[in-house]
């Protein structure tokens, strides 16, 4: 395992009845002093067909701007699809990034969405 000077674990939960695409899951985080980020996304819905589509974005600018706006943010990697009762891990190098943020697109059949997340920042 690499020797990092610091590691900060942040966790949260998302609960929303609306199925609007592009909702903020993790608000923009200043990562210009970080080396690596690891994310875990957990879909607590017991129905396997109720999927969350997660998108991780990066930005090279001094301000955070509007998360997910195509003229300001670039998606990092592919969509992350998390079926009900499952989870997913994603790790990224943040060298050269200023901002990282995450959005969620809940499935239309999600009447009562609950999803948990964890983010580990390493410098």
Helix % is: under 10%
Low-confidence stretches: none
Question: Major beta sheet, specifics?
Answer: 5 strands, antiparallel
Give the count of structural domains.
Answer: 1
Q: What is the helix tally?
A: 0
Query: Could you say which overall geometry the principal axes of the C-alpha atoms support?
Result: globular
Integer average pLDDT: 88
| Proportion of residues in β-strands | over 45%
Question: What do we call the CATH topology?
Answer: Jelly Rolls
Encode the helix/strand succession as letters.
EEEEEEEEE
Which class best fits the helix and strand makeup?
A: mainly beta
Total count of strands: 9
Look at the structure and give the CATH class: Mainly Beta
Distance between the termini: 13 Å
Radius of gyration: 14 Å
CATH architecture assignment: Sandwich
Any chance you could write out the topology, listing elements then pairs?
Blueprint: E1 7-16, E2 23-30, E3 36-43, E4 52-59, E5 74-75, E6 80-82, E7 86-93, E8 99-106, E9 113-122
Antiparallel strand pairs: 1-9, 2-8, 3-7, 3-9, 4-5, 4-6, 4-8
Question: Which key terms come to mind for this protein?
Answer:
about 120 residues; mainly beta; five-stranded antiparallel beta sheet; four-stranded antiparallel beta sheet; about 55% strand; globular
Structure write-up:
With 123 residues, this protein is mainly beta. It has no helices and 9 strands. The chain has one domain (7-122): Jelly Rolls (Sandwich), CATH 2.60.120. Helices cover 0% and strands 53% of the residues. The protein has strands spanning 7-16, 23-30, 36-43, 52-59, 74-75, 80-82, 86-93, 99-106, 113-122. Strands 2, 4, 5, 6 and 8 form a 5-stranded antiparallel sheet that branches. The chain has a 4-stranded antiparallel sheet with strand order 1-9-3-7, with no helix packed on it. It is globular and about 40 Å long.
């Amino acid at each position: 395992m690499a020797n990092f000077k610091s590691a900060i674990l942040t966790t949260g939960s998302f609960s929303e009845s609306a199925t609007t695409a592009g909702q903020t899951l993790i608000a923009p985080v200043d990562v210009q002093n970080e080396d690596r980020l690891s994310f875990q996304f957990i879909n607590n819905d017991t129905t396997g067909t109720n999927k969350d589509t997660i998108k991780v974005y990066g930005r090279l600018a001094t301000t955070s701007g509007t998360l997910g706006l195509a003229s300001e943010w670039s998606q990092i990697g592919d969509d992350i699809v998390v079926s009900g009762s499952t989870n997913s891990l994603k790790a990224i190098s943040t060298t050269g990034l200023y901002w990282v943020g995450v959005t969620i697109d809940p499935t239309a059949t999600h009447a009562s969405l609950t999803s948990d997340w964890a983010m580990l920042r390493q410098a």
